[in-house]
């Protein structure tokens, strides 16, 4: 191969140097060349130039940036309603008792090793996760039509699924609801899909724009992928009713639209695991195919352990097995195999009926506390006579409330009341306590009456 | 509940009408993927019922009883962290503490570069994740660049840069006749590559050959890479594991740093801390100055966020607990040396046994090579015979994982190799 001397950054070699270099190469051994070559490229510009000098600093992640700002604030009354991580009544993060128990069991089991997991992760974890989301009696599981692979929480499951679709599916467009979790678009575009939106939220009613949804999905090209939040829509907290889900299902099946469910809050929304999986099970019950990304970040409080699963429900068992083999090809060059710790905890809990029951109780307690915060905030605003209809606070479900406040009002609340939330007006109910509700209510009241 | 059950009954009836259009699967045309060449070996080994079976396939350390090892320092670290902390999300860039300690290992305990904050670094999903993140970063910010990969290399390197859509070329590395380094050809390839190419280098204990350049050879490699303005990316998966001394194993990197290269490094704790399944590693990129390091780190995080949001906390906690406690760190260094020494001992034993058997071939490469793997020089057909006749499992390129060799099986292994090569 002939060397090229046109380089983007270091155009150091003059033509005389090049000729001399060429001569030396022909005449000398390798070590001679190494000594002489130094003299020929004295101005390689080496020490100054990095090939990455042009890289500019990326903007802060809008969601995670809220916590950064919160941490900097010295005010004693500051409130972090930004990122969706559960907090206790005392405002502390929570590790579930059953999780601690499982961890101890793992620690005490001296036979446990830290070997590589298979590419698809812990087999038991995968089976139990599928059971959890599809139901123990799901026909898809009985007929071996589901492949489940362990991934890095919800994000990782979405990404692996999306990469598979970009490679193997005939339609490369995914429709995502408007609005949706801030990270969704990039997950899909980086995987190689193109992203379109469908109407979802109605700001005037602070509820569903169901007509808009049906129209947009109805006009999507046949076979398009559709992202659906299984329950507790993030950021709005607005979920379709069961009747609406049924209509969505019929429409999608009639147009052969492929459902891709993001299930990040199973059990966390209503407090009941089966209830929160209804939408998914409805789709699986009709015998059709779908993708499901599951996360244990919130419902088991395993956030940083990155535990999740991607399930692909296929029409036939042999297809599921082929799909799994291709999922492995996506995973291997991404992270080889998934992390063992968090998934081991989950498997330990899910397979033991006593621990499973303990978990459902702790889970319900978290969901109930959030529902109670909703009620308290609603009551507090009513007591203050805050203008507007605030019933959406108790109608919406899950960790977040889409308050309907605009970015100016949000900015005001941060400045004057040290309340931290995302600029779209989303608050994490999990960050509230009985003690702090009054402060938040005061802030909302002030924002609504003094800023429009 | 009753209403819901009734509704789902009605739903089932409706499917017969609406179902016709989606009768066939979307995935019928999906082909079954080939088995992973490395991980498939262990699967086959596990399925084998023979009492004599030997697994010298995948590169995971085994003790002299052939058992996986959890280091004592790791057990102690786990005891300390269990029940103490919460499981909150790490920042996108991972555990700051873990990354700090990890940089010291690669760049030097008192590195000026660290003090000057010139290194952009993020926690990554072990070595694989660090390489992939770098490959994606390379694609995004140097879209016209290509990566040069040694022949041979860890098979997954090709997959990683391919999935990142970075065009790849190869450079000469292994010299089959001498079972050593094809140094002249390697230097030629470096010189012939277009200026500003990216070169993937194994920092120590080359996988799969075990053949490393000497210090003098590294200096020359550095020199030629510098002359061409190439970017040097180091995959360091075996620091401490090769010679038993992490400082020694980082020599190549230190040479490049002295010579002023702006390198990138993928570091892994899978082998040297035995944290395989925890997926703990680090990607670092040395920049011109602190401002650029901040920019580069922010962009690395932008690539991590849509892949997994933030990295797993448990393994990182183990690492930072060990490395920030002087006693635990000392213990770790001792345990790493024990592992490296055992492997060096097995190399000596395997070579000795083969020579004792009167093998006509030269086996000195077994002790010349370094790290977990020995590139035996066996052909795929000979490997197949080892598997079929002797229940010995290795990858078909003749790579032997020395970590799978024990005093209990080294004679058996030597006998078998002798049988198929005499």
UniProtKB/TrEMBL annotation, chain A:
<dbReference type="GO" id="GO:0004069">
    <property type="term" value="F:L-aspartate:2-oxoglutarate aminotransferase activity"/>
</dbReference>
<dbReference type="GO" id="GO:0005739">
    <property type="term" value="C:mitochondrion"/>
</dbReference>
<feature type="domain" description="Aminotransferase class I/classII large">
    <location>
        <begin position="78"/>
        <end position="444"/>
    </location>
</feature>
<protein>
    <recommendedName>
        <fullName>Aspartate aminotransferase</fullName>
        <ecNumber>2.6.1.1</ecNumber>
    </recommendedName>
</protein>
<keyword id="KW-0032">Aminotransferase</keyword>
<comment type="similarity">
    <text>Belongs to the class-I pyridoxal-phosphate-dependent aminotransferase family.</text>
</comment>
<keyword id="KW-0808">Transferase</keyword>
<dbReference type="InterPro" id="IPR004838">
    <property type="entry name" value="NHTrfase_class1_PyrdxlP-BS"/>
</dbReference>
<dbReference type="InterPro" id="IPR015421">
    <property type="entry name" value="PyrdxlP-dep_Trfase_major"/>
</dbReference>
<dbReference type="Pfam" id="PF00155">
    <property type="entry name" value="Aminotran_1_2"/>
</dbReference>
<comment type="subunit">
    <text>Homodimer.</text>
</comment>
<dbReference type="GO" id="GO:0030170">
    <property type="term" value="F:pyridoxal phosphate binding"/>
</dbReference>
<dbReference type="InterPro" id="IPR015424">
    <property type="entry name" value="PyrdxlP-dep_Trfase"/>
</dbReference>
<dbReference type="InterPro" id="IPR000796">
    <property type="entry name" value="Asp_trans"/>
</dbReference>
<keyword id="KW-0663">Pyridoxal phosphate</keyword>
<dbReference type="GO" id="GO:0006520">
    <property type="term" value="P:amino acid metabolic process"/>
</dbReference>
<dbReference type="InterPro" id="IPR004839">
    <property type="entry name" value="Aminotransferase_I/II_large"/>
</dbReference>
<dbReference type="InterPro" id="IPR015422">
    <property type="entry name" value="PyrdxlP-dep_Trfase_small"/>
</dbReference>
From TrEMBL, chain B:
<dbReference type="InterPro" id="IPR015421">
    <property type="entry name" value="PyrdxlP-dep_Trfase_major"/>
</dbReference>
<dbReference type="GO" id="GO:0030170">
    <property type="term" value="F:pyridoxal phosphate binding"/>
</dbReference>
<dbReference type="InterPro" id="IPR015424">
    <property type="entry name" value="PyrdxlP-dep_Trfase"/>
</dbReference>
<comment type="subunit">
    <text>Homodimer.</text>
</comment>
<dbReference type="Pfam" id="PF00155">
    <property type="entry name" value="Aminotran_1_2"/>
</dbReference>
<comment type="similarity">
    <text>Belongs to the class-I pyridoxal-phosphate-dependent aminotransferase family.</text>
</comment>
<dbReference type="GO" id="GO:0006520">
    <property type="term" value="P:amino acid metabolic process"/>
</dbReference>
<dbReference type="InterPro" id="IPR000796">
    <property type="entry name" value="Asp_trans"/>
</dbReference>
<keyword id="KW-0808">Transferase</keyword>
<keyword id="KW-0032">Aminotransferase</keyword>
<comment type="function">
    <text>Amino acid aminotransferase important for the metabolism of amino acids and Krebs-cycle related organic acids. No activity with D-Asp or D-Ala as amino donors. In plants, it is involved in nitrogen metabolism and in aspects of carbon and energy metabolism.</text>
</comment>
<feature type="domain" description="Aminotransferase class I/classII large">
    <location>
        <begin position="52"/>
        <end position="417"/>
    </location>
</feature>
<dbReference type="InterPro" id="IPR015422">
    <property type="entry name" value="PyrdxlP-dep_Trfase_small"/>
</dbReference>
<keyword id="KW-0663">Pyridoxal phosphate</keyword>
<dbReference type="InterPro" id="IPR004838">
    <property type="entry name" value="NHTrfase_class1_PyrdxlP-BS"/>
</dbReference>
<protein>
    <recommendedName>
        <fullName>Aspartate aminotransferase</fullName>
        <ecNumber>2.6.1.1</ecNumber>
    </recommendedName>
</protein>
<dbReference type="InterPro" id="IPR004839">
    <property type="entry name" value="Aminotransferase_I/II_large"/>
</dbReference>
<dbReference type="GO" id="GO:0004069">
    <property type="term" value="F:L-aspartate:2-oxoglutarate aminotransferase activity"/>
</dbReference>
<dbReference type="GO" id="GO:0005739">
    <property type="term" value="C:mitochondrion"/>
</dbReference>
